[in-house]
Design a protein that fits this description.
Elements lengths: L10 H28 L14 H35 L33 E3 L10 E4 L5 E8 L7 E7 L11 E9 L2 E4 L4 E2 L24 E7 L4 E8 L5 E7 L22 E3 L13 E4 L5 E6 L5 E4 L15 H11 L8 E5 L4 E4 L15 E13 L2 E12 L6 E5 L3 E3 L11 E3 L5 E3 L6 E8 L7 E3 L3 E8 L3 E8 H4 L3 E3 L7
Parallel strand pairs: 1-20, 2-6, 16-24
Antiparallel strand pairs: 2-26, 3-4, 4-5, 5-6, 5-7, 8-9, 9-10, 10-11, 12-13, 13-14, 15-17, 16-17, 17-18, 18-19, 19-27, 21-22, 23-25, 25-26
Helix pairs in contact: 1-2
Keywords: Membrane, Transmembrane, Transmembrane helix
């Protein structure tokens, strides 16, 4: 989740470009200002006015300096995670022959070469007029890594949570923000200024040695919000009672006012922040767990996807049973070797990315489409993560696995998914300049990181069909947020099926 940032900032080059960009920036802000007031939004300044063009210019220039502090912090987190992984023999990276990779080599990864053009499976928005992804407008509050679910009562709105982008301040407490959002002129717009989610304070830090840095920064990070079969949940990273950074879960109805009417209607699990455990060995930095439910609605935690899967049944107190992935490992390892990206010796990894959903692989509109054990599965998304010129690149894939034990992998995307509208720069392009001064090296694509998959239709929770629309939510360069709505079948049209499974 935490990306490595560019080590250097060419302020003079940005200054030369910014003058030509200001007019476009002003037009964009003015257009969004008008759109915001059509929905009765609050503005980004306390006095009810937008920043002036000069203030925006000063703010952008200052961000060139301020973002360095945040980039440095994220870099430290990446390094700490890598250090914790290398210290755990069960998580040591291996090459294609199964030989552990030496994480301490002296290669200069600052100038790691870019791969040739990747063959992508492109997806397009169902809603926008240009079929590109949907940007998110928050009235000036910086967010990234969004999550979205349908609003429980207002069928014109959705609930969004996202990481608060806190550049320009010394961060001691991370924050997750929330607002209700609605579609307006191809933009997903907050109906009011985002507010901080009242997640319980972090416990006392339990980090030591090279991970001691994380004791000083509390609060939730890398949150996921999603619907289970019966209730919505929020999972996030924070200080752990068992390790350094662990994963916590809480019923979203306890945290979000929009669910106030439901708080006393049905019994709930995880009414307070509960740490989700994992089968040993426990890593120093645990990230991106997701829950999934079988056909009897029993909950399981999927802890890891690569180099070998780890998942276990979840109890109401956050404890888990033994690692159940051993029962499907023989089949899973064959399928992973067939379809998952092969990793370079350095600076590449496979990351769990999103929550899970259940899907029946036929169309709701087909009268003969009846969910059963042979056509209903669980799916999630993962990333192939790499670094080039100190810039992170994340390529998303779909993984489908059985809904019931042994939960073996059923299929994996044959190609990474390309979200229409993601910027791609030619090798002779110097940089891509954003309004906050962030630039992308020549020849790169924007860093999109999918954090959430959800059914788009109101009233739909965990299960769906191929002809149901989905929302994919993603962060962009850890500074912005975006969404794209697609039919589920668009994600499932390029699957490679594991040996022993019939294709549909």
């Amino acid at each position: 989740m935490f990306s490595r940032r560019s080590k250097s900032r060419d302020i003079f080059r940005v200054t030369a470009i910014v003058a030509g960009s200001l007019l476009l920036l002003y037009i964009t802000l003015h257009s969004l200002y008008d759109a915001k007031h059509q929905l009765g939004l609050q503005t980004s300044k306390g006095d009810g006015s937008l920043r002036t063009l000069k203030e925006d210019q000063d703010h952008d220039a200052q961000d060139l300096i301020d973002l360095d502090a945040v980039y440095s912090q994220d870099f430290q987190e990446d390094e700490a995670e890598a250090s914790a992984t290398s210290a755990d023999p069960s998580k040591t990276a291996v090459n294609d022959t199964g030989i552990p990779i030496d994480q301490s080599n002296d290669m200069d990864d600052d100038y790691d070469t870019l791969p040739e053009r990747i063959d992508y499976h492109e997806i397009f928005s169902l809603t926008t007029t240009n079929r590109k992804f949907i940007p998110v407008f928050t009235g000036g509050v910086g967010i990234y890594n969004p999550n979205i679910i349908p609003h429980p009562t207002d069928h014109t709105l959705w609930i969004m949570i996202a990481q608060h982008e806190q550049s320009g301040v010394e961060i001691f407490v991370s924050e997750e923000m929330t607002c209700n959002v609605g579609l307006l002129n191809d933009v997903m717009v907050c109906t009011a200024e985002p507010t901080v989610i009242p997640i319980e304070p972090s416990i006392t830090g339990n980090c030591s040695a090279e991970l001691a840095y994380f004791n000083a920064r509390g609060g939730p990070r890398d949150a996921r919000m999603y619907h289970g079969p019966d209730a919505p949940y929020i999972m996030y990273g924070s200080q752990s009672a068992y390790s350094c950074i662990g994963i916590w879960i809480e019923d979203a109805r306890m945290l979000l006012d929009d669910f106030h009417a439901e708080r006393f209607v049905v019994p709930k699990l995880f009414t307070h922040a509960t740490e989700v455990q994992r089968p040993p060995p426990i890593g120093g930095m645990e990230k991106n767990f997701f829950l999934f439910w079988d056909s009897a609605n029993k909950a399981y935690v999927h802890h890891e996807i690569h180099p070998h899967r780890v998942f276990a049944q979840l109890s109401f107190d956050g404890s888990v049973g033994p690692n159940l992935a051993t029962y499907s490992a023989a089949k899973d390892d064959v399928c992973i070797a067939m379809y998952m990206p092969h990793l370079a010796p350095d600076m590449e990894s496979i990351h769990q990315a999103s929550n899970s959903l259940s899907i029946t692989l036929c169309k709701r509109a087909d009268p003969g489409c009846i969910p059963n054990d042979s056509n209903t599965f669980i799916f999630t998304m993962f990333h192939h993560k790499s670094y080039h010129d100190w810039h992170g690149v994340y390529e998303p894939y779909v993984m489908v696995f059985q809904r019931d034990a042994p939960f073996a992998i059923h299929a994996i995307s044959q190609r990474p998914i390309w979200i229409h509208g993601r910027a791609e720069l030619t090798r002779d392009t110097h940089s891509l300049l954003y309004e906050n001064g962030k630039d992308i090296p020549a020849g790169h694509t924007e860093m999109f990181y999918i954090t959430s998959i959800s059914w788009k239709l109101h009233g739909q929770k965990y299960h769906g069909y191929l002809d149901d629309p989905l929302f994919l939510a993603f962060g962009i360069e850890d500074t912005r947020a975006g969404l794209i709505d697609v039919m589920a079948e668009d994600l499932f049209s390029d699957l490679g099926y594991c040996p022993g499974f019939m294709t549909r």
